[in-house]
Structures are given as C-alpha cells and as structure tokens.
Amino acid sequence: MKKTRKNEIIDETQKREISLERAAELKSKIQDYLTKRNEIPEGLKMEEEIKKSRKKILKIPGVLNQTGKITDGSYLKEYQM
Fold this sequence. Notes:
This protein has 81 residues and is mainly alpha-helical. It has helices at residues 12-29, 31-36, 47-58, 74-78; strands spanning 2-3, 9-10. The chain is elongated and about 70 Å long.
C-alpha cells in the first residue's frame, strides 16, 4: 500500500490505473510528433548532405571566427543557403 499526495491509501491496482491514465495523457500531448516522427530526417541518415552543406558554408568569406567555428547564420541568408 502507498499513500498519494492527498494521503489516500491506494493499492497496486489503483497505482497501475493511475499510471496508465498518466501515460495516456502524456501520449496524447505528443501525438503530433508520433504521427510525423517517421518523416523527420535523422542526422546519421543525412551525413552526406550535411557534409556538402558544410563545405558550401565554409567557402563563404568571413563565416569562420578565429577559433575555426561558424560565427552565425546571417551569412547564410545572403548566400541563400
């Protein structure tokens, strides 16, 4: 037996029901994602495309800062990337 926040004593069956209700509530909140998740590209699957884009970006004058990192995305708008 366990007590809830309201100090009610609940048994294992009630705990399970509460958990299932909460799971259903949370799942409903991410339903849009669950519907579209197979259409969302993953970084590992896009490795070649990412490498090509990076090469293009690195060719833009002034895009790298002194540490060799891309400074910001404002250059991309100018070069339509």
